[in-house]
Amino acid sequence: GAGRVKHELHVAEHLARRAFRRPVTTEDVNRLMRFYEAGRRNGGTFDQGIEQAVAAVLVSPQFLYRSIRGPEGVTSNTEFSLTDLELASRLSFFLWNTGPDEELLTLASSNGLTRPGVMEQQARRMLADPRASSLVTSFAMKWLTLTTLDQVVPDPNLFRGFNEALRRDFSTEAQAFIGSVFSEDRSVVELLTADYTFLNDRLASHYGISGVTGPQFRQVTLTDSTRFPLLGKAAVQLGTSYDTRTSRDLRGAWVLDKLMATPPTPPPPDTATDLSQKAGEQPKTVRARLEQHRDKATCRTCHGVIDPIGLALENFDAIGQWRTRDSEANVPIDASTVLPTGVAIDGVTDLRAQLAARPDVFARTVTERLLMYAVNPRLEYFDMPQVRGIVQSAAKDNYRLSSIVVGIVNSNAFRRQGVDAVKPAAQ
């Protein structure tokens, strides 16, 4: 009857609105209804009809891509402002990694999203929503390359205490810790300096921390500053090691790239990178092997910057346990070094102090990576003034996550689009 048809039309309209992230047209609804009716033919049920309509949505380019059309007649090498609906999608996929909810869609449909202060209001609302946890899983864990820990398989003969359960614990700890900084809207600098983490009994034992019982993760205050995150995380140490040993160059490059936004230049293609011990040789420390490895001037250019940073982390073995001796060479670990700035440091605590002494550098790194995550393309030199402006403004609020996010959503890089960069983004 008429009531059933009305209900079916309402379902199709709601489905299209949420899937296409915009107000729907009669054409949208009619197209979906054709698929619905095909599913109902020959005695098909309501559910079978809806299944066909959903399938049609899932293969539609309007669902699969977030397109930015631009105004009619816009010329090359110019910028234009995104529409409210385009901004709603960009904001929602940025903070939630999914399409806009009803409140955001309704605002955008009436062109209310671009009214003064509304974008900030919506960003803060969305950050407080549980869906903002996607900033941890889809952004932070990937930015810090902590989603690829399974690519490192520690040699079971050298690391007998390691197993797959412990690998999962490494990841859980990192995700829970980053999640707490983000969800509590703390200063992003606390990713470097916080004196707490999340542990269960197995991981606590791995770290040599007593008083933690049971398999559940819980927040634990740390008394040993060598374990202060992120540099004290076993996830970081495992992800920057090889199967049989630590890697001063991988660790140094990770700090430069992920924490300081200054990735080193890749080595020339003919560079020898094998630092394994040769059969019959007297075992050497990783430090000694690297010193021999970088005798060439072409190696020293980059390794003079990378190695001192990685060396400061040498007290952590390849699975993140603290050690004072190199087990292969049977000599004490020497983690003292001189940074490229000329500052002498001794170990991870001093390295962390140097990084924390320039909070603007780390905040700039977070801002750059967040902005790239929000708008897709890599940043160019002409984007840097905006990044610096966001960081300077966030400094007044102690670099809280929300202050950086608000700065991003209010920036031209977020609200505008260059014609040459217009291309659909896959969801």
Explained architecture:
The protein has helices spanning 2-20, 26-40, 46-58, 61-64, 84-95, 102-109, 118-127, 134-143, 164-183, 190-193, 201-207, 234-239, 248-259, 286-293, 297-311, 348-356, 359-375, 384-395, 401-409, 412-415, and strands at residues 65-66, 79-81, 196-199, 218-221, 325-326, 331-332, 336-338, 344-346, 416-418, 425-426. The strands form 5 sheets. It has a two-stranded antiparallel sheet with strand order 1-10. A two-stranded antiparallel sheet has the order 2-9. Helix 1 (2-20) crosses helix 2 and helix 5 (84-95) runs antiparallel to helix 6. The longest helix has 20 residues, at 164-183. Strand 5 and strand 6 form a beta hairpin. The protein is mainly α and 427 residues long. The model has no long low-confidence stretch (mean pLDDT 87). It is built from 20 helices and 10 strands.
Write the layout of secondary structure elements.
Elements: H1 2-20, H2 26-40, H3 46-58, H4 61-64, E1 65-66, E2 79-81, H5 84-95, H6 102-109, H7 118-127, H8 134-143, H9 164-183, H10 190-193, E3 196-199, H11 201-207, E4 218-221, H12 234-239, H13 248-259, H14 286-293, H15 297-311, E5 325-326, E6 331-332, E7 336-338, E8 344-346, H16 348-356, H17 359-375, H18 384-395, H19 401-409, H20 412-415, E9 416-418, E10 425-426
Antiparallel strand pairs: 1-10, 2-9, 3-4, 5-6, 7-8
Helix pairs in contact: 1-2, 1-3, 2-3, 5-6, 7-19, 8-9, 13-15, 17-18, 18-19
